[in-house]
Every structure is written in C-alpha cells, then in structure tokens.
Structure to design on (484 residues):
C-alpha cells in the first residue's frame, strides 16, 4: 500500500499514523467478546467499581475529589480485561480490549470537548458580570420571600436548558441565601425548589443536563424532539413547588443594596454563546456531523473575541496608569487588573467533573465488555418491561447518579419505541431530584448552603417531589402516546 504513495513525507506520515493507531491497519471485522460475568475478573471488577463509587458518594465526608477513585478503578478494570483477552489462544481476541477502549474514548472525547466549550463560555459570562448583574437585580427589588421562592424556581427552570442545571442551581441558590439571610427554613426550602426546577428544566434540552446531551449526541433523539418533554418537565417542577410554597411566608425582607456592573463585551459573549449553540444544532441536524464541531468552532470565535478584549485592555491600562488617579481597566477606585485572558476561563473549567466523566465512562465501558450490561439489560428490560425499567432508571439516578445510569442504558441500547427513549431521558433527568445527592445540582448546592440545605432537609419533601415525578411520567405517556 505504501508503494503507491509517491511523496516520501506523506509515506512517512502514513506509516506513523498506522503505528500510532494500529486498529487502522487491521482488517475490518466484528469485535469478538468473551462472557466474563462468571469469571473471577468480572467479580473483582464489580467489587472495584462499587468501592470506587462508595468513595465518590462519600466525597463531602472524606474530602477526596470524585474523579480520583473512578479513574484508578477504570485503569484496573481495563487492565484485568486486557489480561484475560491477551491470554486467549485465538488471536482474534487479542485486540478486543484495545478496540473497546478506543470506542469508549471516542464517546468520552466528544462529551469532553463539548462540555469544555460550554464551561468556558459560562466562565467567561461570569467574568464579564452577567450572572452577578442578574443576582443583584433580584436581591435589590425587595421581593417577598414567597416571590423570591417562585422567581428563583422559574428562572432556574428556564436558564438551565441553556446554562446547564449545575451552574443555574448555584446562581439561584446564592440569591436565596442573600435574601433569606438567617432565615434557614426559607433558604432550605428555596434550595430544594431550585434543585428540582433546574433538573426539570434541564430535561427538555440537550444542553440542560449531561444525560440529555449524551442522548442527543448518540442521535437517538433529535434536537427539536426534546421539546416534547417541556410540559412533563413543567409539571415535574410545579407540583412540588406548589406544595412547598405553602410553607413559605409572604414576609418582605428589607431590600439589599448590592451593585454589579456588566463589563464591556458581556452581551457580545452571550450572543456568541447563543450562536455557538445554534451552530452545534445545525451541525448535527443539517450537516450530520457531531455537534461538538459546532461547539468547538464557537469556542474558537470566543477566543478570537477574547483577543480583542485583551488588546483593548492593554491599550487602556497604560493610559490609566499615566495619571495620578488610581484607576483600573473597568473604572475608578478598584484594584489594578491584568488584561483579559481567555485561557484563564478555560483553566477554570470543572476539571474534576470532566475527569470524573472519563472514569465513569471507562468503568461502565469495561463492565459492558465483561458482559454485565447485557445481563442488566435482560433483567431490567426483559424482566420488568420497558416502561417499568425506564421508571426504575429515575430512582436509580437518585441513588447512584444519572450519568453512569444513562451511559449504561445507552451502552445496552435496548429495543425501545421513540416514546420510551423520551421517557428514559425524562426519568434520568428529573429522577435525581428525589434525593439531594441524586444530581450534580443538588450536591453542589449542599456544598454552597452547607448545614442549611442538607440531605434530610431535602428528604422531608421527597414525597412531594415523587408526586411531581409520577405526574410528569403520566403526562408524557398521555401527551406523547403516538411515540409508544
């Protein structure tokens, strides 16, 4: 084959490509698997994963970042799988572990780059003062506690489809804490409402939650089809919100005097973010290429605009430093600031979360290669029935976390109607609201309102949240019955 490549540089590069990615040099064919579910490697792998996940759940108590145990667990699981396959006499098995690792790495790479672009935009909007301005407006209006309860919930519901449920929940929780002050009862119930609203809002948008993003990237549900979950998501939030609001007083605390200034270019960054989302959707829907291409192109546009802000800051700063008045790039009387640097916003991405996703995807992928996902699919979807299994996914999301649960479902790829795929998307997205530890939003707000919004404070209202969960499922099955 290389003899037909006349350019020697091209031939060398092609040889290096085959050397670096040996699966390109292998003849195409199906990957051969062994059933290791009853092998000692299978039992040890399950034990390793369980121990790692216990450490993840105990993150707040042991103060060890959640990415560390799952990354180590992923490496050990795949090493054990690779040892078994390498020992097989039939050489057709020797590259199975390698091919499956590369398959799972591709799944992760798309998710990683997509989230990295989104996180950088969110960080830049934060640096430009977009979220501070929104918070200041809310706390300065002198709304009653009940009004703040409903406003923060409503904003959480409608911001999370764009900014993701974690960021939205943290933003709204700061508002509730600022207004509630020492009224811990209000702060706790407002935080519960915010978590439920943020998770519900994220369920009807590919950008609102990691699980919906994975379903969209997999091509199972198209962008516009997610909006079929809008009304079920509304009901999922409104029912518990209406019940909890009865416990919120109409007291009107004194308005706070908080100021926040939008930095130059804030609205341009917001506009670029919306453009980036549009490009991601168009790339997937019309060009039939991964949406991550649109996101990364948008990140490139943001970096170009960041360069413009940086050059303006460099021009303004020497002029300000030349006089006797103490000034900064943004105004008078503040501390001198360095020129804007887009890579600082890139550095502030949630790297622990991104590495956690790597560990989870690789762990679940390893257990799938062993054969456990096939067994789980049979037990759930054949044993319980599709609808019951998809409802169970929501409860599992509250206990385990929706990301590994949804990735497992996508890896199993059970035969389901379109309506059932929408159902599991809904339940995985909103099921985490049943417990405070069931979603990234809940865990993050527990850390922010430490000692006020707690596991047991949330558990007190779990029955109301469960009513919303049941009602949203019933409404989906009625509104979207044509998909079943």
């Amino acid at each position: 084959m290389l003899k037909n490549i006349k350019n020697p540089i091209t031939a060398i590069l092609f040889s290096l490509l085959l050397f670096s990615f040996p699966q390109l040099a292998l003849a195409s064919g199906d990957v051969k698997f062994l059933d290791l579910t009853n092998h000692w490697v299978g039992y040890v792998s399950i034990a390793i994963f369980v121990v790692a996940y216990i450490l993840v759940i105990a993150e707040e108590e042991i103060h060890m970042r959640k990415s560390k145990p799952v990354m180590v667990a992923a490496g050990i699981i795949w090493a054990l799988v690779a040892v078994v396959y390498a020992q097989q006499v039939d050489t057709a098995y020797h590259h199975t572990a390698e091919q499956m690792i590369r398959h799972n790495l591709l799944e992760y790479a798309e998710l990683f780059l997509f989230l990295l672009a989104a996180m950088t935009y969110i960080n830049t909007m934060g640096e430009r003062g977009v979220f501070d301005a929104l918070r200041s407006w809310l706390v300065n209006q002198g709304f009653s506690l009940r009004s703040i309860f409903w406003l923060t919930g409503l904003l959480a519901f409608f911001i999370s489809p764009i900014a993701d449920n974690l960021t939205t929940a943290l933003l709204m929780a700061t508002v509730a804490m600022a207004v509630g002050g020492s009224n811990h009862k209000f702060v706790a119930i407002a935080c519960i409402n915010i978590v439920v609203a943020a998770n519900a809002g994220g369920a009807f948008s590919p950008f609102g939650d990691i699980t919906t993003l994975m379903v969209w990237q997999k091509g199972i549900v198209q962008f516009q089809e997610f909006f079929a979950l809008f009304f079920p998501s509304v009901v999922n939030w409104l029912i518990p919100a209406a019940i909890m609001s009865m416990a919120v007083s109409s007291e009107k605390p004194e308005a706070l005097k908080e100021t926040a200034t939008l930095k130059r270019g804030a609205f341009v960054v917001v506009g670029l973010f919306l453009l980036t989302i549009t490009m991601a959707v168009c790339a997937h829907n019309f060009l039939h290429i991964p949406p991550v291409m649109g996101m990364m192109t948008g990140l490139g546009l943001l970096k170009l605009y960041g360069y413009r802000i940086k050059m303006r800051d460099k021009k303004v700063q020497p002029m300000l430093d030349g006089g006797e008045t103490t000034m900064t790039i943004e105004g008078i009387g503040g501390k001198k600031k360095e020129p804007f640097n887009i890579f600082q916003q890139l550095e502030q991405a949630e790297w622990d979360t991104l590495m956690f996703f790597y560990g989870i995807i690789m762990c679940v992928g390893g257990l799938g290669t062993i054969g456990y996902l096939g067994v789980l699919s049979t037990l759930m979807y054949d044993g319980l029935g599709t609808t019951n299994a998809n409802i169970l996914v929501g409860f599992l999301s509250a206990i385990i976390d929706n990301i590994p649960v949804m990735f497992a479902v996508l890896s199993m790829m059970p035969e389901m109607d379109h309506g059932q795929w929408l159902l599991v998307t809904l339940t995985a997205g909103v099921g985490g609201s049943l417990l405070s530890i069931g979603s990234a939003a809940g865990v993050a707000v527990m850390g922010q309102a430490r000692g006020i919004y707690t596991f047991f404070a949330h558990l007190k209202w779990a029955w109301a949240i469960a009513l919303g969960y049941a009602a949203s499922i019933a409404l989906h099955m009625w509104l979207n019955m044509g998909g079943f």
Observations:
- Residues 109-350 form one domain.
- The longest helix spans residues 96-127.
